[in-house]
Amino acid sequence: MIENGMREFPRTEVFTLLKVDKSSYYRWAKERRPGKGKDMLEAKIEEVFWRHGRKYGSRRIYFELRDEGYPAGRHKVRRVMREQGLKAIQPRSFVPRTTNSRHTLGYSPNLLLEMNLPPDKPLSVIVGDITYLPLQNGKWDYLATWTDLFSRRILGWAIREDMTENLIIEAFQMLLGRVKLPAGCIIHSDRGGQYASKKFRELLKLHGCQQSMSRAGETYDNAFAESLFSRYKAELLEGGSFAFR
Asked: Is domain 111-237 in CATH 2.30.30.210, yes or no?
């Protein structure tokens, strides 16, 4: 109404007629200007929030705005985020377990203890492991890999919402589609129930493979697979480029 009136009458007459304080009007108009005041701050807060994959709360966004020279207090940043519905992802208070060795399926011997490490030729030892992948919706997926211990080449992998025997079997079938395993190839893993399942053991037997498992408390012989996952998460997950669901 004020803006329409000022197109036809002097501004002072419009302010007097509508009983509007002139300084209050100009302050309000300045804040509404595109790219100025409150609008610019809201846009910047939203931009920082999504740039960091919804991981930043008001405190971290406040410090980033301050470093970039935006005059906004933390309480204001928190209020704007609340009004815009910008809620940072909250990490879970637990880490999913990927190994359940308390089963009655039996264990295979640790064949790596009987040979000199590292292996001296490709496809003589294949190492498998499972890790969890935190998703943007707060849930988890699971990644299984099979890696040639000699070349450090990942030969098979699979991602599923569960970590049943089908997870490692899908990854192993990818491996079988890419390379031909020699007779007697050692397939090494931890003592998890997925690897001890009847279905997986029959698959290994069908392809002439020997199964090997770490003994309780042993971590060194499967350390490479764990190191692989640690580096993977450091470079992709922490870097913000991981964007499943």
From this structure: no
